[in-house]
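User: My instructor asked us to take a sequence, write out its structure as tokens, and then describe one feature of it. I'm not sure where to start. Here is the sequence I was given:
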Amino acid sequence: MQVLILVGGLGTRLRASIGPTPKPMASVAGRPFVEYLLLQLRRDGFQEVIMLAGFGATVLHRYFGDGRDWGISIAYSNEPERLGTAGAVRHSLPMLEGQQFLVMNGDSFFDIPLLDLIAAHTATPLNGIASTATLALARSSETERFGSVELGAANQVTRFREKVTTRGEGLINAGVYVLERATIEAIPPARTVSLEHEVFPGLINRGLRGIEMRGTFLDIGIPQAYEALRSDPTAVLSVV
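Assistant: Let's start with the prediction itself. The structure tokens for your sequence are:
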């Protein structure tokens, strides 16, 4: 199964910490953050990665090349302009083979058995409807930052709740997905589209699953989170 990693983010909020460095290349314990995702993928047996690049694509290519130093084949799908998370996935369609794909955010890390997520996606159809997409969900006390996801019977996603001002525990989107080819083909081409705000909400009651999974979740989207990880990188070092 091919793996698509979203690495085109500008990282505007981290500019004071990382300067002009692309966000996925932010240094943690001497390695670019996204390198830990590659090590996780290699650990779980994945061999083919497509980096969905935009800002900083040259920096990524210069560092990772074709991936042979990591024992993984890496190709690059470069956005001609900023297309959003779903738009970047849709733009890579000519490079995709097969019917199912693992998609990962390049600025978060969820230490789970990735094959278990794929197994859940391909399990018994949801209310007779085959899965169109499956989201890995983490339990978190930071729903005011990430928003939350509500589930119904058979792990079907019933609602996305936007970020709220009151702190509380709940299930959050952990940035790891399994998508069907037909789901990607349905994304409008050549324009900005969001997985989180457009595609996934549109799939509610149409085969969208969420699977709560146990594992360390972290991201580097804000300076406080990035600096905390730099101070204690234990979580990501588990895959080295």
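For the description part of your assignment, you could build on this observation: The longest helix spans residues 33-43. Try explaining in your own words what that tells you about the chain.
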